[in-house]
Design goal:
The chain is α/β, with parallel strands linked by helices and 267 residues long. It contains 11 helices and 10 strands. The structure holds D-glutamic acid.
């Protein structure tokens, strides 16, 4: 059956997955998108694997009810510890995850790779494992940045407090002479400018969202499921709690109005 006009499902624990939506809109402007952000239960990055898997299962069931034709796990934490949960529930629709995408992008350009992410993603060792599988000679250096997610959700996008925190986190990695840095949490592209300012021009910043969208485009085109409409896609955002900050920060980041935002309960 032709699925071309069905939406793409994108999900994250909160606002961070909008960095994937931004890339999707740039790369596939005619696709319809259903976004889900679990604002009521964020952060995931400091929670147990069992809890993250339970939340993921509830979210994927919600997305499947919206009749999505593909799913992007727009959260590194979920990609690290609950990717199999998504694949099992999704059946035969494509599932793209940001960790495989980020690892691919990093190994394409670098052998001295820094990774910043939530504590759950760093503790899972998912990035170094996938990177070494692709490029055994690559060296990886990881740093958990627990304070970045609450700061982004709070709107501290360009703020002196963020600069201080970022400098502290990045100091160790820079001591290892990294030449690339993977933004291993989808919240981090929102604070990319601050991170870039501290790193300087010699470290290339990798946003896995860009490669994830390229991989999705490839998967949809292979199945002949790309949307052939010439109209701009329809974007619907679902969140699990009050959406005021989500809308404010989201509209600034996406540079467009978010007209359809709905609060849902997936428990
Ligand atoms: N955006 C999520 C990620 O990519 C993390 C946010 C959270 O801790 O819930 O890992």
């Amino acid at each position: 059956m032709n699925k071309q006009s069905q939406p793409i499902g994108v999900f994250d624990s909160g606002i961070g997955g909008l960095s994937v939506v931004k890339s999707l809109i740039e790369q596939l402007p005619n696709e319809n998108i259903i976004y889900f952000g679990d604002i009521a239960r964020i952060p995931y990055g400091t929670k147990s694997i069992a809890t993250i898997q339970k939340f993921t299962e509830q979210t994927v069931k919600f997305l499947l009810k919206q009749n999505v034709k593909a799913i992007i796990i727009a959260c590194n934490t979920i990609s690290a510890v609950a990717k199999d949960t998504v694949i099992q529930l999704a059946g035969d629709i494509p599932v793209i995850d940001v960790i495989s995408a980020g690892a691919k992008a990093a190994t394409n350009i670098s052998k001295q790779i820094g990774i910043i992410a939530t504590p759950a993603t760093i503790n899972s060792n998912a990035y170094p494992t996938v990177i070494k599988n692709i490029s055994p000679e690559a060296k990886t250096y990881s740093q958990a940045c627990a304070l970045f997610v609450p700061m982004v959700e709070e709107g501290f996008i360009q703020h002196p407090a963020l600069e201080l925190v970022a400098a502290e986190y990045l100091e160790n990695l820079m001591a290892h002479d990294i030449d690339s840095l993977v933004l291993g949490c989808t919240h981090y592209p929102l604070i990319k400018q601050t991170i870039a300012k501290i790193l300087g021009v010699n470290v290339q910043i990798i946003d896995p969202a860009i490669t994830a969208c390229e991989q999705l485009k490839h998967a949809l085109s292979q199945d002949n499921n790309l949307n052939v409409s010439d109209k701009q896609g329809v974007y619907k955002y679902f969140v699990t709690d009050v959406a005021v900050k989500f809308q404010q920060i989201g509209e600034m980041f996406l540079n467009r109005p978010m007209t359809h935002i709905e609060i849902v309960n997936v428990e």
